[in-house]
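Appendix B. Raw example, untouched.
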Amino acid sequence: MPYRITREKSYIIMLVIILSLVGLGFIQYLMLRSNLTVSKEKYDQRIAETLALTGDEIYNRTPFSNLLSAIIRQDTVTFPIGLDSLKSAGSQFYRMYLTDRLTRAGISSTFEFAVKDRINGDIYFSSEQFEQGFQEEGNYKIPIEGIIASDCRCAPYLNIRIVDYNRQFWNNVWWYVIPAIIFLVLLTAGFVLLIRIVREQRFLNEVKNDFINHLTHEIKTPVFASSLSLKILEQKSGPDLMPYIQTARTKIEFVKMNVEKILELASLENSNKVLKLETIETAKLVGESVKNIQELNPEREFIVQSECDCEVLADSYHLKNAVINLLENAIKFSNDRIEIGCEAADSMVRISIRDYGEGIDPELRDDIFKKFFRARNGVPGFGIGLSYVKQVVSMMGGSISIESTPGRGSLFTIHIPKSR
């Protein structure tokens, strides 16, 4: 049975698409967050290792450690300059020193620093832009020990704050974020376009079905009137006109039959008609179907090879129509005998119709069950017979298969579940 996109199904499709997009965006967010976390951990580790190295370098007495010690002790005797000048010089030298050590470690961040007391929090000296206050990320502290702590008999520590902390990581992940955003936008646009196409196709399908239903209903009225007129004309006409009347009657019956097929197919597709499943004698149904066709085509040879005495669970009316449709197709495409078979196989019953006509090309076998598809022009019909057969058989829980060799004919087989 062909898959139809109803209004409810289209809403489900849209919901699934929206959930998929939200889920994809959430996964992208989690991946980005994980990447940032790992990058920050590596960065923090490098900063900590570099600051620990600077602490080791000023642990012992050196000219630089003496300068830092004098600033902390406010000793203007060892360095005979004003205290403000001493702090300014020490701040510049310490910044250059820290910048050099961070650069060697591959860190080029902008930073501010201060040397504070661990006990009372007093600032001994700091860089010009250092600001007091809490900073959660990019804030590093390391104790200053050794000769400096011994000289001042205090507990100083170095506090470094990375000004552009977050920018360090965003610069590394933009190459990942931007393509992800672009692809997500493109995917969203594609899904929106798909939803629009699905809705338009559903609308067009509804319009098409409505048009076909209205058209076929309009055709039924003149067909009925023509049949009645032919019946009256047949009663009042002589033998000379009978061949023409019979030809007209045959054509009208052909149109009537196809109109009924279209109405039945549309009814099934729109779920306006539910199949009535019941227990059916397979051999009897096949025999009645062949008899109906044989009465209309007495010149054709029909060979019934029935080995089936079991029952199936199906809709008698539609299963009979399905068999008749296959027989009509065999008549259209074959001038030879037609073989009808019926046999039981496991839980299924196989009803087969074989003709010895021109056969079907392999590339067309997947298309012949599509509605309105015609394998060859010039043959009467609207291309709905096989589509109808496949749909009603599928709705009964069965299937239809085909075996065909070009130039040697075709074998259509209906598989219907047995009655339990």
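End of appendix B.
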